[in-house]
Amino acid sequence: MSARFHETRWTLVSRSKGDDAVSRAALGELCEAYYAPVVAFLRRDGRTEDAARDLAHDFFARLLAGGMIAGADPMLGRFRTYLLMALKRFAADQRERANAAKRGGGRGHVAIGAETTEAGTGWQIADERAEAPDAAFDRQWAITVLARALATVEAELRGSGKGDHFDVLKPWLTGDAGTPSQAEAAGRLGMGEGALKVAIHRLRKRFRAAVKAEIAQTVSGEGSVEEEMAALIAALCGG
Description:
Layout: H1 9-15, H2 21-44, H3 49-64, H4 79-100, H5 133-159, H6 163-169, H7 171-174, H8 182-189, H9 193-216, H10 225-237
């Protein structure tokens, strides 16, 4: 696994419990990382796209206000599990309120960056039709983890002057349609097919390490990383 790690999500959670700029930045990163899974859950829980996005902003605004994050504890395990439990309680509460009376007034929105979606990734994932909200959350979490890991690998290669290698070899990571033949890819990179096979192997190995590093940010111990890797694969395969 790469020696370069981002701060763990649990460290970010601990920092987010304060009331200063560092805490706000920590929570902002948490919101950005989990925005797409939260929207996916709410969509499968019966909300329209617009309503799901509005409620996702409300959910994270409550996190920013410190209303739900105080109980987060790394000793309890995965942050993903904690967040999903909090989201379920939030969604149930919103449903009860909606049944009692329509909510009115403006909402304070959390500034969240562009969310990760599955469109265009090329990764083979389960059919999301008739998908349970929990499964939708986990599937989108898995897609987001892969996308963040892919972005890490891309940044590393471009930073080392090998952006062309990433552009040509990326389809062997994502399975995008139109993957060139190995002979064609080797020609584009000016190397033999044997060298290309080695380059693909190394890139896949680095990508897997980046995925593990991303997962390691969300669990309380190294022993849970392989379990989360298995959960990620299961989420993409539909079980």
